[in-house]
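Support case: iron/sulfur cluster complex. Customer-provided input:
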Amino acid sequence: MNVYDSWRIAAMLDARGMCATKSVADADIIILNTCSVREKATNKVFSELGRIRDTKKPDALFGIVGCVAREAGAKAFHRIPELNFVLGPQSYHRLPEILENPDTKLLNIDLAGLEKFDELPQMIKAPTVSYIPIQEGCNHCCTYCIVPYTRGREISRAFDDVMRDTAAAAKTGAVEICFLGQNVNGYKYTDENGKTYRLSDLIRATAVMPEIRRIRFTSSYPTEMTDDLIDMFRTEPKLLPFLNMPIQSGSPDVLKRMNRPYSLDSYLEIIDKLRAARPDIQISSDFIVGFPGETDSDFEKTVDIARRVKYINSYSFKYSPRPHTAAALMPNQIPENIKRARLAILDNELNEIQREFNEQCINKTMLCLCEGPDKTGRHLLYRTPYMQQCIVTKKTDQAPETMAQIKITAANRASLRGEFVKD
Ligand code: 5AD
Ligand code: SF4
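Agent response - structure generated as follows:
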């Protein structure tokens, strides 16, 4: 979501005749887009702002946007008095106001709704992989998570607005659409005639666009994986056989304290249904280790579930206490050294599973999407349907095919090697 927000900010400034510079020292405006989901990123923001202040041109405008801006509010101006603007994740469309009135201080951290999407200019050329936000905020209240506070309650965008953006992206260069939302499969929009649209309706309407070759969505909440959506994996070949559906922990006790109200059985049942719909589907997850009160045996259950589901492309984090969250006040916070040790064990396991899966891909042919040349310029980087990176040796100097059938020839934990197949 932050990557998407940064694009839109860049496009907004682009529309006003500005362009990106290589270094902070050359810039007329410097915007730090921030994430507050874990403490480490938040801590870096203010030291980075201090560095920017000391490097920038004296009259350059600078400020922060995003979740740390919302979290810090007016306090940000106290910590760094030179700041010109502090804008939350729902109000960055107001950035041009500071260009018009550079001598003021601009502060807006409201959770105003989704008006920013209507106020931002359309992009002139869409990226090959285009993110389309369909909902923002979250109604789940996981006890560790700051998102309901920083991004607010869940709001779904109008079906017609999403489809307008999707069609515009398709017409101006998008080949892959990734629908975005903190709780993307909770998408639900009822129009003025009382007709309700779900994520499955967006997928179906996008799949008929000839320019669009691949569709995916992230991030999904397990209990909102409804049958209509699962069925899309059976009926829509453009929907990639890859799904991010975080389990967070494999321990029922920890899940309860996280306020994630599903049982392991019901979670695994959803995966069974997904595999019945699309036998080659692979699942990715986010994991938190060292949640308050997590015992060795709780942690082992997380490692067990990772092995059992064979998650690929997963993310694992040490639990980080966040302001405004219930878990930060829970007893039995886990010491840092134990969190670190558990993370290393889980990461090791996830890497092993990834390596195994990558090796199983050898000799398979997959339709992959080109992301451009590698650093040496001798190879092309492709992305498989499972989001693995695949390195292919360039044969000619001609512009690469955006989509190509690639036979996988070698694999390690981090990437694949492949060659073009003539079809
Ligand atoms: N500590 C550690 N990880 C967190 N996440 C969210 N909040 C926290 C926290 N307080 C992780 C979850 C989520 C991902 C986006 O970030 O795993 O799925
Ligand atoms: Fe945070 Fe995701 Fe839980 Fe919502 S579902 S509160 S965004 S972790």
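The chain has a mean pLDDT of 94.

Case will auto-close in a few days if no follow-up is received.
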